[in-house]
Amino acid sequence: MKQLILMLCCIGISLQLTAQEIPQHISYNRIYDFLDELANDGVIELNSSVKPYSRKLISDKLLEAQRQRWLLNKRQMQETDFFLNEYALEEERLPQAFPRSWSNDYIRVGLLQPAFHYNDRLFRARITPLLGMHIHHNSKGNITKRWLGGEFQAMIGKNISIWGSLRDNSMTSLGGNLLSRPQYLNDQPGYQYKEASYGGDYSDSRGGISLAWEGASIALMKDNISWGDNYHGSNILSGRAPSFPMLKLSLKPVEWFELNYFHGWLVSNVADSSYYYLENEKTVHYRPMNKFMAANMLSFTPLKKLNISIGNAIIYAERNVQAAYFLPIAFYKSLDHTLTKGLRTENQNSTMFLNISSRNIKHLHLFASVFIDEFNTKRLKAENKEANFISAKLGGRLSNFPLSNLSLTAEFTHSNIGNYKHSIPSLTWASNSYNLGHYLGDNSQEIYLALHYKPIRGLDVSLSFSDAKHGKEYEYIRRGTDWNGITGSIRSIISQESIGKPIWTNRILSFKAVYEVFNNAYAILSVEHNNAQGHENSDAPSFGERKMTAEQALKRFTPAFWQGENTSITAGFSFGF
Predict the structure, then answer these.
(1) SS3 for 136-160, per residue?
(2) Contact residues for 419 (Cβ-Cβ < 8 A; gap 6+)
């Protein structure tokens, strides 16, 4: 590893090309949504299947839009100038002056817009505080979320970037209710809570260091990753699970090809009975089993504004990392067969995925993504009742047509039984027990519709509706095993009908307004009506089914705050996101 890093440093120095690579976290929805709007209108071209984007890429795209101001409406012009002030250091300049600030040739310090910026020939840096509070209220009471912390970003010379952030978060409510747990079917970000009677606390630390040159970058980082086009939760990598450390490689040598790869260190939450600490020679503290992930996404642009991305991934749980999975372009299932087949043991968990994104019709973005957990062509035959482990998403967004500043979004997601799961707990498509894919998990379906309006710079107003269903809950169980050196038995749960009679449903009608007062400062107000229900299933239990009453299903999949029919109001303000 040391030799690899040294070699890459030498390459970067020898090329003497300027590039920086600091990721913009996927929670900054406004900038991601604005770039998407510009791409839909044909102002810029964008591969939106892989996030986060780098701050340098965002800056370049904003500058590209600024150079074509005649294609923008008044609000888009103001938004472009506003966002460029946020990414000033990427242009090797200090941001424009804002109220109650002090500055000289190298430093700008703001109070009303709290931030510290430094810029010289060799070193650029900024420090920003993170502070916020959101209050949720409905007939069941209040839930208050608070966070406090800071963020640091720096660019050294022409090729090296370093960044880090820490957020100390607290959620308090009467009865200690939490809004996010691994089993809850909502899109709340996942965290590893330290639970208490009042609710829970968690600490979220992210950061990294990267070496970048023109067309390439390599980084050691801890962050959230989202793969797959979507507007309401990706079915490939959603970014909802807690951030995890990874070695990440990005290559874009030509306009028509891009490679993204990472090797990640996940959290299994499965105890390793052979690995433990011994306290006072009597108390045993078991350590979690190792869990690793390698994934690649190859994106091709055969026509302008048409992106076709294909990739595959493997989750493996060995004692140490496997060198073969550091290959950025590889079919990991084939590697897995070579490494494990001779032992007559279970393979690791390999998957494939496909994403197609088209903006060939001005103002319209059409996309589709398919996540393939397990596939057998025999299951495609009409007489075969078994289904493949597949999740599919289809959607689109119409922006600024026929009315300016207005967009309409529609999205449909369907996931078959068994998708994302595995019979070996340490090999599931999850980290910290949170599903890495779509937040509804397997055997689920969702329709999502939204209307977005942006009347002025900084103000985003949306009205959305979602109809989510979750079918019977199944354990990934094998129906006996035939270890004759050739094949194992089929999974009988996949002969059941996907969704069928749902045991859980939730319909949500939501109004939300977000105003970015100045860079990195937000006011939010939302009103949401939801109806989450569990449903009794009187059918006799099928193989592998986890039988639940209506009440058990409701409590398992829904936080107490949103169980049943509720009208909830959320209000808050924050520095940072």
Answers:
(1) EEECCEEEEEEEEEEEEEEEECCCE
(2) 371, 373, 389, 390, 391, 437, 441, 442, 443
d(CA 356, CA 369): 6
Closest CA to 447 of 393, 490, 407: 393
Check residue 267 and give its pLDDT. 95
Q: pLDDT value at position 488?
A: 40
Q: 111 or 166: whose pLDDT is higher?
A: 166
Q: Are 236 and 369 within 8 A, CB to CB?
A: yes
For the chain, the C-alpha Rg in angstroms (whole number) is: 24
pTM: 0.91
Would you state the structure tokens that stand for residue 574, as one six-digit string?
């924050």
Q: What is the pLDDT of residue 257?
A: 97
pLDDT at residue 367 in the model: 98
CATH of segment(s) 19-87+122-575:
2.40.160.130
Which is more confident, 498 or 294? 294
What tokens were used for 380?
């495609």
Contact indicator for 431, 291 with CB cutoff of 8 Å? yes
Calculate the alpha carbon distances from 175 to 88, 169, 181, 368, 444 in Å: 45, 18, 16, 42, 30
Query: How wide is the angle at C-alpha 71 spanned by C-alphas 66 and 76, nearest 5°?
Result: 60
Domain boundaries, the chain: 19-87+122-575
Average pLDDT over residues 335-349: 78
The whole-angstrom separation of Cα 405 and Cα 408 is: 10
Query: Residue 457: pLDDT above 60?
Result: yes
CA distance 317 to 425: 10
Q: Which two tokens stand for residue 224?
A: 């959230």
DSSP 546: -
| Cα–Cα dist 404/385, whole Å | 48
Q: Are 371 and 355 in contact (CB under 8 A)?
A: no
Contact in structure between 31 and 58 (CB atoms under 8 Å) = yes
Residue 363, sorted as left (phi over 0), alpha (psi -120 to 50) or beta, turns out to be left
CA dist., res. 558 & res. 209, Å (int): 38
Best CA proximity match to 446, nearest among 474, 473, 465: 465
Residues 92, 55: Cα–Cα separation, whole Å: 12
The pair of three-digit structure tokens given for residue 480, joined into one six-digit string: 């006996």
Summarize the confidence of residues 284-306 as an average pLDDT: 94
pLDDT digits (tens, 9 = 90+) for 393-451: 999 999 999 999 999 999 999 999 889 998 889 999 999 999 999 999 999 999 999 99
Query: Which of 412, 468, 471 has the alpha carbon at shortest distance from 442?
Result: 471
